[in-house]
Every structure is written in structure tokens, then in C-alpha cells.
Design brief:
Length: 303
């Protein structure tokens, strides 16, 4: 449901900020909005992880971790697995593996108690490895009705028209968007000319955020502009500009700060990327705004 007045766009339950029509005023207005938005995001970032994110970290601290070799084995056997654990471990976490589920085989260490020759203390020694069966979260009895928590909690589902609009406009940029059942916790992936969005995203606000984030990667992170940047910087640029655009169109999004922080980026580092983020945001805004402005669109976003 989309209604329109001279300056504002109302879609579902949100209303965008009024944007001046005249190109110069519009650009200044946007620059101010972007700077304000990044300041707000940096302030959130400097507060540290949100309570919800800390709870999630605590929750997953109880889960087993796996070596690189086992992670590779898991990926080869069950690429969509988000968390895996042994049958009994799942039970201890209050979960039941569904009957007939296919096991994933990983190497687990064989240990025995041994007296330390120097200290005389009894310690656990690994004397070999055996193959053990683990099961994916997707094979739990309540996988569909009670999925494992992720940092993304559901939002209102009222901006699908904007998602569809952005997908149409990306097509004109030579970027194809498709939906696939990606691994839990992965919202989307991007290459230079293809974006894949997870079919598991619960609502259109998250879908729009993921689409903007992946669009930033597609449009700005393949080629010269990404050279010499760390993964953290690239993620901060994508998520930061996604946040700026969501802010500009009046959608509050509380997940970006945790996401950026989880990539080791500080508030100061985010502020230092303001120019680049402003440029990418301008580029993303044209995917969703009511009438994309040619003069804004053609600005060099990689400043
Ligand atoms: Zn990303």
C-alpha cells in the first residue's frame, strides 16, 4: 500500500522525511541527514553491545565450537547448518534431534587422564581422533516452530513495495536479485552483479535492510574502492550506509550497531568513514526513493 503527497511518501506505518525538490538543496539536505545518521549510529556503537546481543552471546557460549578442519567437514556435508552438536549435547541444551535425521561426521578427540611428568598433576591428554556424529539445528524437532535465536528479531512487515522497487532498480544497474534458503544467520550474499537474499528473512524491513547492505557490497566493494580495506571496514561501510538510508526514509533499525561492532569497528572508525558512507548511501537512496534524482545518482559514490 503506497500513498504519495508532494513531499512525503507513506508506506505502511512509516513516513519518510520530506526531501527538498531543488537538486542543490536536496544534496545539502541529504549530506546533513547522512552526517546526523552516522553520528547517531556512532553514539549507539560507543555504548557497546546491546542487551539483546549480550544475551545472545551468553546463549551461544554454551554451544560447542569446532576446529577449522571440522568446520570444513560440516560445510561439505551440510552447508546450511547454523549450529551443530552431538545428540546428547543437544539434549542437554533442551533440544531433541528428530528421528531419522542424517548425521554429520566430524573428528572428535580421544582423551585420557595422564600424570604430567613435570608437575605430577593429572591432566587430559589427547591420544587420537575418532569420527563422531553431530546433528544440525535444522534437524531438531522444533526447528521450524522454535528456531535458534539470531541477532535479528522480527520487525513490522510493511515495506515490501520498497524491496520490490529496489530490486527493479538494481536490475537497471545490471544486478540480479534472487531468493534462496541461505544458512541461518546469513541474510544475504553479494557479487558484483548478483545479490542473493535469504528466504528465511522474517519480514520486509529486514529484507530491505539486507538488500541495501548487499547492494552496497555489489555496487561499491568489487574493484578499486575496496582495495586495502579490512573486512571490518567493508562491513561497516555496507551496514553504515544501509543504516543511513533506512534513517533517511524513516525506518528505525536497531541491529546495525551490534553488527558493526561484532566486526571490531569502533565509533571513531565509523565516523572516520563518513565520507565514503555518505557516498554509498546516496547511491543506495536512489534504489528506494520516490523519484531518483539524476544529479544525485551520478555523483561519484566512492569519494
Ligand atoms: Zn556484508
Amino acid at each position: 500500500m503506497e500513498t504519495q503527497t508532494a513531499e512525503r511518501v507513506t508506506i505502511g506505518s512509516y513516513t519518510t522525511f520530506p526531501v527538498p525538490k531543488e537538486p542543490k538543496a536536496r544534496e545539502e539536505h541529504f549530506e546533513l541527514l547522512a552526517a546526523t545518521a552516522i553520528d547517531m549510529l556512532a553514539a549507539e556503537l560507543s555504548k557497546g553491545y546491546s542487551e539483546g546481543f549480550l544475551k545472545l552471546l551468553h546463549y551461544y557460549a554454551r554451544y560447542p565450537t569446532y576446529s577449522a578442519r571440522n568446520r570444513l567437514l560440516i560445510m561439505l556435508q551440510r552447508p546450511e547448518a547454523y549450529r551443530v552438536a552431538g545428540y546428547v549435547k543437544w539434549q542437554s541444551l533442551g533440544k531433541q534431534v528428530e528421528k531419522g535425521s542424517k548425521a554429520i561426521w566430524v573428528w572428535s578427540p580421544l582423551r585420557k587422564k595422564q600424570e604430567d611428568a613435570v608437575t605430577g598433576e593429572m591432566t587430559d591428554r589427547i591420544y587420537g581422533y575418532k569420527l563422531s556424529a553431530v546433528f544440525a539445528d535444522a534437524d531438531l524437532e522444533d526447528a521450524k516452530t522454535n528456531p535458534l535465536p539470531t541477532i535479528w528479531s522480527p520487525l513490522p512487515d510493511d515495506v515490501q513495495p520498497l524491496v520490490d522497487r529496489a530490486i527493479e532498480r538494481l536490475k537497471d544497474e545490471g544486478i540480479t536479485v534472487t531468493y534462496k534458503p541461505l544458512k541461518t544467520g546469513v541474510q544475504g550474499t553479494a557479487t558484483k552483479d548478483r545479490i542473493t537474499l535469504s528466504t528465511k528473512i522474517s519480514d520486509s524491513r529486514h529484507r530491505l535492510a539486507s538488500l541495501l547492505h548487499e547492494s552496497a557490497h555489489s555496487m561499491c566493494h568489487f574493484g578499486e574502492t575496496a582495495k586495502g580495506k579490512t573486512d571490518g571496514q567493508i562491513e561497516a561501510e555496507a551496514e553504515g550506509s544501509c543504516w543511513v538510508v533506512l534513517h533517511c526514509i524513516g525506518i528505525p533499525y536497531s541491529f546495525s550497531a551490534d553488527y558493526i561492532r561484532s566486526h571490531g569497528i569502533t565509533a571513531d572508525q565509523l565516523r572516520a568513514s563518513l565520507t565514503v558512507i555518505g557516498g554509498i548511501s546516496r547511491c543506495l537512496l536512489k534504489l528506494v526513493e520516490d523519484e531518483p534524482n539524476k544529479e544525485l545518482v551520478d555523483n561519484n559514490y566512492a569519494a
